[in-house]
Write a structure and sequence with these properties.
Elements lengths: L14 H11 L8 H9 L8 E2 L13 E5 H4 L9 H10 L8 H18 L5 H7 E5 L12 E5 L21 E5 L31 H19 L7 H11 L29 H11 L51 H7 L36 H4 L13 E3 L5 E3 L6 H5 L1 H101 L12 H34 L9 H4 L1
Antiparallel strand pairs: 1-5, 2-5, 3-4, 6-7
Helix pairs in contact: 5-8, 8-9, 13-14
């Protein structure tokens, strides 16, 4: 057994120290945009019963039963209940979810999708150890806690050449609370959030596959090489990313069935309908370094296993999950070295861009600053680095087994028998309950304050509504008076119109009578070639024609009398007026 690392007694940090630690670790007030909410809703991940949006807190204080996650984690495959493989990785590496970065989560999603959809197996712990190892994502004198651990591909392994985005801008500012859930296959879910837990490199980060695991996974390694190098049917990391986004099954969520049994649009593990092609391509480009000039593959060159493309007959699907230790923590969870020894392995500080994935190590960083720790992983004793598989039961994470076989606490040298004392257990339970109730009380106080503000706002709105109602009642009498006056005006107008019609009819009758009398005297009667619908106009037209006839007759008489006048009255002056002449 490897010797224990140095442990020192820890005191409870003060409020000022916690605030300073949160500042150094990278926590800041969450800022989720409307676009983030729309994307989560499109992807079927915005579940109000499972998620809670943080308030004004500058660092996470999740309610009881809730954990901390990020928008970029959710869109890369995280959902609750958590997949047992990811849960085991977090436990065996002794890291919290927030200490990974988005590209590391994407590594795990790609690996699980590769195993289930293209190898036809459950995610394999031995295969994982042959491909990946962990490194800290920090420089000297710079502490990263949020996203301070990155998953790297071993230099000697030829793995998918995925060009991840060098820097996922602003992902640390987009955190929220997600309710912890467990599936039938899990006895507990995600570990409680602990902002005070530091990142320390451990032996499990460099754990290599044992001889038995290498023998069991040689065929899988060969199949991965075949998938990458088959002419005309090469499988790429981008194709794998596009595939799990296209089928709408979260890789890092516990599921009822493995994805080699995926049944299409009616599959019960789907979280949403198909994404629009535009949104899918946007996500793929957001995850990788593909530009708009690069085409996002519409399908995989290798047909993935599914309900319509079943596994071959006699296909073996071995299961090998990261083991959970029993009987206290084993040396797998021990710190490899102290901080000074760890810094000796890191390269000098550099501000250049972080190297992206090639066939070698993937070192991922938001700030493009990486302590690459590029030296090959040290050879460790498999028995000392890999714990024995055990039942899935949660154990105290601060418990540690010493070289003399005595169980100690990480916060001191308290012997195990004291912990077995019923009173001590009761005190520990009461302390845990007090902490939970204290956090819940703070949450309830904040909720009560918000409720009071909403109540005051509703009271102001109710008062304004009551005043508006009173004004409306006062105006009602005026409205009724206006209605009555309008009705009286309409009645008067109707009477006037009736009288006007009656007067017009009388005029028409009189004109028609005059026209008939004139026609009898003159011996001629006119008719209109085009009659209108207005009797008055038609009568006036006929009367005008009769008047024209009378004028013509009078003019003819006048002309005739002027001609004969000189013959009868030669010495008289001809008069100018017809009446004088007559």
């Amino acid at each position: 057994m490897a010797p224990r690392s140095k442990q020192c007694t820890k005191r409870a940090p003060s409020t000022e120290e916690l605030a300073e630690k949160a500042k150094i670790s990278g926590w800041e007030r969450s800022k989720l945009s409307t676009q983030d909410n729309k994307m989560l809703k499109k992807m079927g991940l915005l579940n109000k019963g499972v998620m809670k949006m943080p308030g004004d807190e500058s660092s996470p204080h999740p309610p009881i039963g809730f954990r901390v996650t990020f928008v970029d984690f959710l869109i890369r495959g995280i959902s609750v209940p958590l997949h047992e493989f990811l849960r085991g990785l977090l436990f065996i590496y002794r890291i919290q979810l927030h200490q990974l970065n988005p590209n590391s989560l994407l590594h795990i999603s790609i690996f699980i999708t590769l195993c289930e959809c293209f190898l036809g197996i459950h995610p394999h712990w031995g295969l994982w150890k042959r491909i990946f190892y962990l490194r800290r994502n920090n420089l000297k004198n710079v502490i990263y806690n949020v996203g301070g651990v990155c998953i790297c591909v071993r230099p000697e392994v030829r793995y998918f050449d995925v060009k991840f985005t060098d820097s996922v801008q602003g992902w640390r500012r987009k955190w929220l609370y997600i309710k912890d859930e467990s599936s039938d296959a899990q006895e507990y879910g995600l570990a409680p959030f602990d902002a005070a837990e530091d990142i320390q490199r451990r032996k499990s980060w460099d754990a290599e596959a044992s001889a038995e695991e290498k023998a069991a996974t040689d065929a899988l390694i060969a199949r991965i090489q075949e998938l990458q190098n088959t002419d005309g049917a090469q499988l790429s990391g981008v194709q794998i990313i596009a595939h799990f986004l296209r089928i709408r099954v979260q890789p890092l969520q516990a599921r009822k069935r493995p994805r080699w049994m995926y049944s299409g649009a009616e599959d019960t593990d789907r979280v949403s309908e198909d994404l629009p092609l535009k949104d899918l391509e946007k996500l793929v480009r957001h995850f990788t370094s593909l530009s708009k000039n690069h085409q996002v593959p519409s399908s995989c060159h290798v047909e993935p296993f599914s309900g319509s493309h079943a596994l071959p007959e006699n296909h073996q699907s071995p299961t090998s999950l990261p083991p959970l230790p029993e009987g206290g923590e084993v040396d797998e969870r021990a710190v490899v070295t102290d901080d000074s020894a760890d810094e000796e392995e890191e390269e000098p500080e550099s501000h250049g861009p972080a190297p992206t994935s090639t066939s070698n190590t993937l070192v991922l960083s938001e700030d493009r600053r990486v302590a690459s720790e590029a030296s090959p992983p040290p050879q460790v004793d498999p028995e000392a680095s890999t714990p024995v598989p055990s039942p899935r039961a949660p154990k105290p994470k601060n418990a540690k087994t010493g070289a003399a076989g005595k169980q100690e606490l990480a916060t001191g040298n308290m012997p195990a028998p004291i912990l077995d004392d019923p009173l001590m257990k009761e005190l520990v339970n009461l302390g845990s309950l007090f902490t939970g109730f204290h956090d819940e009380a703070a949450t309830l106080r904040e909720a009560l304050r918000c409720a009071k503000e909403r109540t005051a706002d509703q009271e102001a709105k109710l008062k304004a509504s009551e005043e508006a109602r009173k004004r409306a009642e006062k105006d009602a009498a005026g409205v009724e008076d206006l209605r009555q006056r309008l009705q009286a005006a309409e009645d008067a107008l109707s009477d006037k119109e009736a009288k006007q019609v009656e007067r017009e009819n009388d005029i028409v009758t009189r004109l028609e009578t005059q026209s008939r009398r004139f026609s009898r005297k003159m011996g001629e009667q006119y008719t209109l070639s085009k009659e209108s619908d207005d009797r008055l106009l038609d009568t006036l037209d006929i009367l005008e024609l009769n008047c024209d006839l009378a004028r013509k007759c009078i003019t003819s008489v006048w002309t005739a009398l002027k001609r004969v006048f000189p013959h009868f009255f030669p010495k008289d002056t001809q008069p100018e007026i017809f009446a004088q002449l007559a």
